[in-house]
Design a protein that fits this description.
The chain is of the alpha/beta class. It has six helices and seven strands; from the N terminus they run H-H-E-H-E-H-E-E-H-E-H-E-E. Strands 3-2-1-4-5-7-6 form a seven-stranded mixed sheet, sandwiched between helices.
Length: about 210
């Protein structure tokens, strides 16, 4: 079924793609530090760490965290919207000798790339917060469809007002409303100069 989008919605999608492509073309994107965040490390290696299983990273950038997860026993699939990022992620995984599947895909259109799941963990480092509002329910549906019982979603996001546009950013209330069948288990403020948060969501057990 084809989707009908307004001119404003099409403009938002084109704007996001253009900004991301510009960052990767011009050099190192500001969100791509090359360092796995301690919040993910704690989930994978800390007290009560998750048992390694299948993970889907949404908006993987150049693959730093996908490689980290593979090195810690996870079966990793990673997607990014930008061809240049995907190529760099594949090269990084190959250089590390890590078995990572990296696909060029829109995180709101996962059905188009044949990712059946289920996944035990989803990781999102500032992907969702930049998705135009009209595509966010599709993101949620795609993740929920592929979530194993008791799956986790670890998401880093910028709060509203962090950027110049009127729609980017994410709040705990929004996630609670959109992610039916999930529990918002934790919200931890980030340490950035603008409002940021780490959200942990947990899928209901079967």
């Amino acid at each position: 079924m084809s989707e009908t989008r307004t001119a404003a919605e099409l403009d938002q999608e084109a704007f996001v793609r253009g900004v991301l492509e510009d960052f990767y073309r011009d050099g190192k994107p500001p969100w791509d530090s090359g360092i796995t965040p301690p919040e993910l490390v704690a989930l994978i290696e800390g007290p009560g760490a998750l048992t390694a299983g299948r993970v889907l990273e949404l908006g993987c950038g150049t693959g730093t965290n996908a490689v980290y997860l593979a090195q810690h026993g996870w079966q990793v699939t990673a997607v990014d919207l930008v061809d240049r990022a995907v190529q760099q992620a594949r090269e990084k995984a190959a250089a590390a000798g890590s078995d990572v599947t990296v696909l060029c895909a829109d995180a709101t259109r996962l059905d188009e790339v044949g990712l059946p799941g289920p996944y035990d963990l989803f990781f999102d480092l500032s992907c969702y917060c930049g998705i135009p509002p009209h595509r966010r329910d599709a993101y949620t549906a795609g993740v929920t469809k592929r979530a194993a019982p008791d799956a986790r979603l670890l998401m880093f996001g910028y709060g509203p007002g962090a950027f110049d546009d009127s729609w980017s950013g994410v709040t705990a209330d929004e996630l609670s409303a959109r992610f039916a069948g999930w529990q918002l288990a934790d919200v931890t403020p980030g340490t950035n100069p603008v409002p940021t948060f780490w959200f942990t969501l947990r899928r209901a057990a079967a």
